[in-house]
Records
---
Amino acid sequence: MNYLQLMGFGPDGWGYDMLAATGMTVAVAVCGFLTGAVLGCLGAAAALSRFRALRAVAETYTTVLRGIPDLLVIYLFYFGSSSVISAAAALFGAQGFVGAPAFLTGALAIGVVSGAYQTQVFRGAVLALPKGEIEAARAYGMPSFLMFRRIILPQAARFAIPGVGNVWQLVLKESALISVIGLVELMRQAQIGAGSTRQPFSFYLTAAALYLLITFVSGRGFRLAEERAMRGIRRPV
């Protein structure tokens, strides 16, 4: 069977399976990225807080999650949550191991890891703001929430876009690790197809091309967002 037939949409082709797995990859990456964005905002707020305890929590979070291998985090989330579910099921008479939902635990694991990186991105974006504008708002007596909404948030988002784009690329690559807990995403589907047809090169080459396509499209989207956000802003030559 040639490559076009193998990756086609006929009765013997794997085209539909690979596209469905690509959709699963995008879905788990988006969920993990959005979860990380929420955690990143909270982490950045804690890191910039005037309270030492909150700063210590943020520092511990970012240090630990960036220091532990991502695959280990996924294993800890999956087997840890599965142990809790199994223990709860045993209270109702169930026996044996009850696995946690692979999509949910995988997205949460990726989100927690990406949140550590997004914490630093958002923190750096806030610190990059011109201090004169914030001091002027305080001198004017602007309430903290109004100052955050009108001054800090719009400009911090502008400075954060490049770093957030890099975190997205990291999340997309991390999504391939979720195959170890049974989620049939792009990498796992390529492994299944390679084992079934004994043509690993064709499947892994297709998977690589699909990953590059997602990366190209999303990267282009982030570049357009950055260009739009920086309109009217003088950049250093």
---
Amino acid sequence: MHAWMASIFGDDTAKNQGRVTLNPLKHLDFVGTLLIFIAGIGWAKPVPINSTYFSTRRIQSIIVSLVGPLSNFVLAFVGFSVWYFTPVSISVEEFLNIFVSLNVVLGVFNLLPLPPLDGYRIVSSLFSAKIQMKLRPLEMYGSILFLIVILTPIGDFTIIPFIRTSIDVVMNSFYLFYEWILPI
């Protein structure tokens, strides 16, 4: 979604690098993939974006960063809607539960304002170019800090409660939406 939106705004960097594809091999990051097997958490290569192609760099950078988490919430809502309106078997219901939960977690998680996540890109885009330049050298430490928080008990008191609460808020919003448009 990031590459698609960036392309709409005039940046074909990802397309030119062959990254606009559903082929998962094009998106694998060696360390991120390795950590999936070691620690149960990993990541893909970041989508290459060159905001110098954007006509309104700050606003379009924020939009490009938002479409990733937004697409997760849309997918979660679609999965929830299928579950809500369609009688499904237990195995399909279990799949939809995992599908919805995973997309909500990814959407919320990616909105955290830590580098290299989308939330950081959104927040940093709000700063002046001068401040952004000062933040850039610190970004490489963001991944290390992020891993420390996630892989140690620190996450149990910081990020994990936030994500759990956010999942509840999003899921309750889905229920409330349908109760609002389809009152019984």
---
Amino acid sequence: MAPISLRSSHTLDEPKLEALVELMYLAAYADGEFGAEEKRHFARSVQSLTDRKVTPDQLEQLITRLDAARRASGTAALLAGARTTLGSPAACRVALSLAIGVIAADGTITTSERAMIHEIGAALGLDRGGTEEMLREAEGG
């Protein structure tokens, strides 16, 4: 299967876009299921990040590829790679915000999703308090 291009007219390069998408996926999968609302929000986010160039079939292929990478490498390795790829604290905060958006899409943030967001935040070198604040805002608090 050929890799799916995430090239975009946005200022982020393809590896950074891939890291953003990967983090959104890891967050969505934190509770062991990729619910319908989360999947719709994920798809809308990917479409937005890629200027709507990813077809539904390509999105399914992307999800399959991300799931295989998660199983093969483990979440910790993927998180470490994302931090290196994203580089700046600002890009890491954007990534965390996108990940929170996906898990909050169904209106509920589970304990396992909250734990994954904190794991992502820590892996990205972000302050725990700031991560918690972002979660509270997503919950409407």
---
Amino acid sequence: MSVLNLKAISKSYQDGEEERTILDKLDLQVSAGEFVAILGPSGSGKSTLLSIAGALLSADSGEIYLDGEKVGSQKEWTKLRREKIGFIFQNHQLLPFLTIAEQLDMIGKFSKRFSKTEVKQRQEALLAELGIADCAKKYPKQLSGGQKQRAAIARAFLNQPSLILADEPTASLDASRGRQVAELIRQEVKERQTAVVMVTHDERILDVVDTVYRLENAKLVKVNN
């Protein structure tokens, strides 16, 4: 089943006196349980593509479908992100003044998809699966870089989103921890049948993903993987 379907997405920016096209009628389809990686040099448009897919930025033209439904006006975006999309960032973006459990509770409260009891159950299950059950009552400053990124993964998956968008999730980690994080994302993808799109420079982890694309000349080119 197709979770994310981008059709003929285009995006241009003004660069001095010139207009620069970074996405040119780009198509992408991602299925449930599929882990997709997108490679490309800095400035190629990877993060822009992720922002458009995540209802954070408007495309100049094209259509976006999530779970078979067309993504509509910006008025719907906040609800869509809250209920259907999870984000994993390069620098985890955990709130320093809340424990990991409190941060996950807050995400569950905003979503309103699950009861308080269900949120707690999902929280405990995710932290256990990710190997950081003992970190629930700790603050981010008490965690290692790898533990923080695992907590960010738990946050992204908590509300059982259809789509996870990961922006360089291993960039701030060493090779061993980076691979561990990629493998944990894959584990959750397969377990929960979520679709994941990850933009990355880290070619050492590409054997963990299902499908690899390169963003070249404003187009996505599939790479044999």
